[in-house]
What we know:
The protein is an alpha+beta fold. It has helices at residues 54-62, 65-70, 76-89; strands at residues 9-11, 18-20, 25-29, 35-38, 46-50. The strands form 2 sheets. Strands 4-3-5 form a 3-stranded antiparallel beta sheet. The protein is globular, with a radius of gyration of 14 Å.
Amino acid sequence: MAVKKKIPMRKCVGCGGMKPKKELIRILRTEEGEFVVDADGKKNGRGAYLCRCVECFRKAAKSKGFDRSFKQEIPQEVYDRLEKEMGEIGE
């Protein structure tokens, strides 16, 4: 009998949909308090997952999804920088 491998699922902070971890982008707060896009999902720090589309990013920003995930208020300049990076990575 073949053993089925478990696929890790994560919830998008924008749309709230559950998707496989590899289909999502991780937004990361480093130990220094900086916010970065973690494309491979392997860096250390607290992360929030997001679909690879700018619309989900905008929903998360509008509904304060990142603020809840990181348990702190996120400055507007961080949102602007992350949106630019998401536009380069996203579809």
